[in-house]
Design goal:
This protein has three helices and three strands. The protein is α+β, with helices and mostly antiparallel strands and about 80 residues long. The chain has a domain of about 40 residues: 3-Layer(aba) Sandwich (YefM-like fold).
């Protein structure tokens, strides 16, 4: 369903026109009796599925010591439960 409204009516009832457009109605705003703009609902864009690890190739050449300082053996043993 399409409704045609003039600019003055659109300014006066903009909030109501937004609600109608959001409900699925197409609103044409006319200026001097000629169609000038269209007010329609924006459809939600489908979000692409996440793909874990898709950028791991970017880190392939980065040495591991950049990310973490190596732990001394005695501290590493504590973390691993080796007292």
């Amino acid at each position: 369903m399409t409704a045609i409204v003039n600019v003055h009516e659109a300014k006066t009832h903009f909030s109501k026109l937004l609600d109608r457009a959001h409900a699925g109605e197409e609103i044409i705003v006319a200026k001097a009796g000629k169609p000038y703009a269209r007010l329609v609902k924006i459809e939600e864009a489908a979000k692409p599925a996440r793909k874990p690890g898709r950028f791991k190739h970017l880190l392939a050449d980065v040495p591991s010591d950049v990310w973490f300082e190596p732990l001394p053996d005695d501290e590493l043993d504590l973390w691993e439960g080796k007292h």
